Amino acid sequence: WYDTANIHFCTIKDFVQLCEEINVKMERAVALDLYGRPVPLNLPWWVWNMFGEQGVFLLSRGGGK
Fold first, then answer.
1. 54-59-62 Cα angle (round to 5)
2. Of 15, 26, 28, 31, whose Cβ has the fewest other Cβ atoms within 10 Å?
């Protein structure tokens, strides 16, 4: 989806899958609500699409390359 000429919306789940595919490590992540505040729920990232408007990720290079 990310390597096309067409515009595609990216969900938090899509972004996490992309990070796994390109060997990027997620050091930290937080879901934000409509107003940019952290979502006050302690939920796994795969539920964030239902409650968060945005995701903020701290990334680092994965191992092996």
1. 140
2. 28
